[in-house]
């Protein structure tokens, strides 16, 4: 069996049986194809011939190529999951990756908005889509206003809930309960959670659903957020909206949707929210993932101390 055949079967397993996202499957596949390239260079033609030495050679090559530590760590995780699957399906008798060590990823503190910067961003004007993006023959002023309502609702919901961009674009209107101010989100691994949002997000969502969505939505489209052509909005369009909004705030970092997620979590922790609650809101499977926000808050405390304490 060619090396690539097992990789394709594993990708199908991840997508069909495990319900992994397209992005996750693409990342795993890229890591494994890189390994296949190394194995072919080393003259390895069968997975049964792979040894720990081959895997360490591959890891060394990737490191010498200058890849980030987080990318290297993810690659090791991909290999381990792949070989575990090969053993579980009877395609291998032993797992050669059992003693393969992964480099610890850098624990960089994510860039975040200050609370006042977030407020300024949400109060800013929404320009709508760039000129020429909408189809001709329609009232462009009406469409631009509808797009502005959409962008405001996107920003308010992302900051209010901390949901991921993939979770946002997958929402349908029935997932949002404006009365109880709750949104039902399908997260990683098809895990569903219910996340509350505040009054500003409720108002922005209500205006978008009532006034904007009917203008932009195409026939038969059931998405909560749509692009200028009436179809379910693309994550790239959401990123454009968020980057434009954060760039408009003087002194604020240039952030995308994940930056708003970090900002929302950091502001909740700064305000006294317990980590377990933040973990549930963000949909983290492990509390260790959520604990990075305590590091962010400690950095803010340190900065305040060094700026204000007479003996700092």
Largest beta-sheet details: 3 strands, antiparallel
Which of globular, elongated, flat, extended, rod-shaped describes the shape? globular
Intertermini distance: 65 Å
Low-confidence stretches: 131-135
User: Which structural class best describes the helix and strand composition?
Assistant: mainly alpha
Got a strand count?
Answer: 3
- Quote the CATH topology of the largest domain: hpI Integrase, Chain A
Please report the number of helical segments: 13
- Assign the CATH class of the largest domain: Mainly Alpha
Q: Measured on Cα atoms, how large is the radius of gyration? A: 23 Å
SSE topology string: HHHHHHHEEEHHHHHH
Averaged pLDDT, please? 86
What percent strand?
under 5%
What's the CATH H-level homologous superfamily of the largest domain?
Intergrase catalytic core
Quickly count the domains: 2
User: From the coordinates shown, what is the CATH architecture of the largest domain?
Assistant: Orthogonal Bundle
Please give the share of residues in helix: 55-70%
Strand order of the largest sheet: 1-2-3
Main location: cytoplasm
Subcellular location: Cytoplasm
Subunit structure: Forms a cyclic heterotetrameric complex composed of two molecules of XerC and two molecules of XerD.
Family: Belongs to the 'phage' integrase family. XerC subfamily.
